[in-house]
Amino acid sequence: MNAIEIHDLHKGFEGFFLKDISFSVPQGTVMGFVGENGAGKSTTIKCMLNLIKKEYGEILLFGKDHVEHELSIKNDIGVVFDDLHVPETLNATQLDKIMRKVFQTWDSDYYFERLAQFKVPKRKKIKELSRGMRMKLSIALALAHHPKLLILDEPTSGLDPIIRDEILDLFLAFMQDETHSILFSSHITSDLEKIADYITLIHNGEILLSESKDALLYEYGIFKGNSEEVNDLPEHAILRTRPGAFGIEALVLKNEVNEAFRLERPSIEDIMLFFVKGSV
Amino acid sequence: MVGLILKDLMTIQRQMKAQAFVLIFLLVMAIFMQQSAMLLAVIVFIVTIQAITALSYDEQSKWDKYANTLPISKADIVFSKYILSVMLMIFGLVMALPILFFINFFTNNDITSEFFLTFNLIITSALCLLAVLLPIYIKFGSIKGRIVLIAFCFIPGFLTGMFKEYIPDMTQTFLYLKQYVYLAPLGGLILLCLSSLVSTAIYKRKEF
Predict the structure, then answer these.
(1) Is A194:A228 a contact under the CB 8 Å cutoff?
(2) pLDDT in tens, A187-244
(3) What residues in A contact B11, CB-CB < 8 Å?
(4) Could you say which of B57, B72, B208 has the minimum Cβ distance to residue A89?
(5) Partner of A64 for a Cys bridge, out of A69, A99, A196, B186, CB 3.0 to 4.6 A?
């Protein structure tokens, strides 16, 4: 079963469109949702959560329509945005009291364990917490009702590598249960390399690719050379080219290229740059 | 719904504490001036208007973006603000009335039918104020909402001034209506219910 299924999602704003977005997140996997700022990641997530209304298309979460079964779906998801959107005069203990009334499955013990693990002060007002602390609190809030799906919209942006690593470990622990799934939107591709099973790349409101991370990293290669050398590559093997420091760089299908060509292993960032800035 | 009201009460807790000092000052003034009705009006309005403070805090923190990811319906999010306001109003009355009777006892002012008239009018005005304020603030937010509110208050006054000679003398009508003043709070409550329906419709069309 797919935790998330999106078919032909369309949403238009002044000067920006989500154009027929389609991708799915299989249950038990982590989908890295990658793209530059303004590519449409947050808009897609907001459509999924019915925070903004889609124009057309189909969004299914746990196989159910996201508007028709909105409340039952929201019982099973945890959402983390790039900031904690709760009134700043509240503190973590007060939030526990509130959430106990919101979720029937709210687990106060688990919540306070996470706060202790992250060293988030229980009684300090949110406005007095650092950005890292606020994000950790936000993640503890998203996890403490034991959701089946985490929707993370840039949860690690603006955080230092140590905190990012701690947070990623927590997400990996969440994924120990094979019924759990994560949609992780980020432009920090190294985070996705650590945690994602699949990568979906969005650019200018369009999905450029949606594939398994291993396929991307092991089936693709980068060839660096001058234009004559690149011309020697089989045409059908070249996915994208772009100017490099010493000539031309080409993203190629590894299996379609003779072993005589020396290929480098691409990173997610390389692939993203080829698809966004390169030419066909 | 309970969670939302709890959240609002916790959010405005500090604000309420700060305003308690203002109320003590007013209490002293009311005792000296022997104006218990004024005290009642101020307490009821200050407490009731806290729902607007809660809305401002929500707006500042983009709470609605988060609240709409929780298993809470949009109707409940809106309705919780109305319940909160009415709860606060009742709390204001429970707090104000004993003080009022206390002042009247010491100043030897009897509780007259005139007082009940004032009491009814205060409650009705507070309910009507909420019925107008909440949809405006939900639709426009606290900054634009203030401007719309000012326009809302001034335009009728301006129009009345412009077309004064065409408007008949209302004194007799008011005197006639005075006998029905006991029903006024009920009218205010009905207006508040209608306002909640309008606010829900507005909120359902909002995007976050």
Answers:
(1) no
(2) 888 888 889 999 999 999 999 989 999 888 888 988 888 877 777 777 778 888 888 7
(3) 87, 89-90
(4) B57
(5) A69
